[in-house]
Amino acid sequence: MLKITATGNLTNDVELKLNETTGKPYAILRIASDRRYRTREGVRPTDFISAKVRGRLAERCAAYAVKGCKLAVSGDFETITFEEEPSRQPGFLIKAYDVEFLWPREVAEAANALPAPADADQSAA
Fold first, then answer.
1. Is 65 within 8 Å of 19 (Cβ atoms)?
2. Which of 8, 17, 63, 67 is packed most tightly, with the most Cβ within 10 A?
3. Domains in the chain, CATH or no CATH each
4. What are 58-96's pLDDT values in tens digits?
């Protein structure tokens, strides 16, 4: 099993959705992370990483995370393919089991002060 942690800034406000079959909440977090180096042109490349959160963790993210806040997301690494578009290049997604709010300080303190969600559905697809 491959574990991954990504740190970056949230690119948009969190939109809470419901799984059609289970009725449980989930959200897709998209974070942007600059690389440590600059190109010859002086530009820092930016990578965009998507993470899926479920259950109470998704609800917590929807309540506290806003566009621009800094997050650390940890979870399992999953390759995704697009069956409806076979020519499309595969991507990856973090199936998050932990999200740490890093900035702004007020949001981080409020969100991280809550007990960690212990959802049984965190490992379910």
1. no
2. 8
3. 3-115 (2.40.50.140)
4. 999 999 999 999 999 999 998 888 888 888 888 889 999
